[in-house]
Amino acid sequence: MEDELQRAMADLDEDETLRLVEERILAGYSSVEIIESCRRGVEIVGEKYSDSHYYLSDLIMSEEILKEVMQALEPHIPINNSLNGVSIVMGTIEGDIHDLGKNIIIYLLRSSGFQVHDLGVDVRPERFIQAVSETKASILGISVLLSFCIGSIKKVVDLLVDAGLRDQVKVVIGGYPVNQQVKEFTGADFYANDVTEALRIYRQILELDEGMSKRF
Ligand code: B12
Q: Rounded to whole angstroms, what are the CA distances from 40 to 62, 88, 167, 170?
């Protein structure tokens, strides 16, 4: 069945996207389902940009619409503080300023009670190591959307080894270009390119077999 919300997002139809989001909230769809439809729509925006059917201004438009979608969803994401002790460091890798996906994951993790230290975008490998060391984080999340920035993630993992911190922290990478090969190349422990998989991984790391995804 065609996903109308995905299509409205791909068409950059702001009003229709927000109308459908409200409709789905009322119909009881989960935040994760709604975000996923929008993410797939934005992926199509990226493809149209690659094919020169869309311009840079259209990428910016997709950013604006997605931010509005998140604003509409935020009041409907329940807050839970049961995981306050778990510390996570997150950031977008050096050279890359894409942060919509990272911010969505951070929002969902915080609302589930994780303590997330957001380093922002264009983060140098050395800064990740410093943050893991200072916060004693057990999970390091790195976002990457630009293929040519993947090499810097490998540098982060190598620096973790040099600093003797590799065993302390699980490295999770996420973003459009990540896959099994990227995981192996960088030395990361897990990868995810959608919300559902990202949440499954965090659950797996913390051995939370039930409950967490139901809260979103
Ligand atoms: C919106 C967008 C922009 C916006 C970014 C706004 C922002 N604040 O983030 C703007 C307009 C600024 C932009 C700029 C550019 N962009 Co851009 N952009 C996109 C676009 C269309 C969508 C990205 C997005 O936000 N998706 C929605 C979110 C929700 O999905 P997501 O990021 O994948 O995140 C999800 C998962 O991946 C995962 N996840 C993400 N991070 C993490 C981290 C962890 C730890 C985990 C577990 C999970 C996880 O969970 C998220 C939730 O579902 C993509 C297309 C695409 N297919 O991704 C191109 C795309 C990434 N951009 C591209 C390009 C080329 C550029 C520019 C170089 C364009 C230019 N000529 O200037 C610049 C680069 C700027 C820079 N130095 O970073 C290319 C990259 C090509 C490549 N292979 O490297 C893409 C793929 C478009 C394309 N098909 O050509 N872009």
A: 12, 26, 35, 27
- Please tell me the total count of domains within the chain: 2
For the whole model, what pTM was predicted? Answer: 0.91
| Residue nearest (by alpha carbon) to ligand 1 atom 42 | 174
The pLDDT tens digits of the residues spanning 156-178 come to 999 999 999 999 999 999 999 99
Q: Which CATH number is 34's domain given?
A: 1.10.1240.10
In this structure, are 104 and 72 located in the same domain?
no
| Domain coverage including residue 34 | 4-76
Q: pLDDT tier at 83 (50, 70, 90 boundaries)? A: low
Query: How far apart are the C-alpha atoms of 21 and 27, rounded to whole Å?
Result: 10
Strand 190-192 with 170-174, pairing: parallel
Closest residue by CA, ligand 1 atom 61: 145
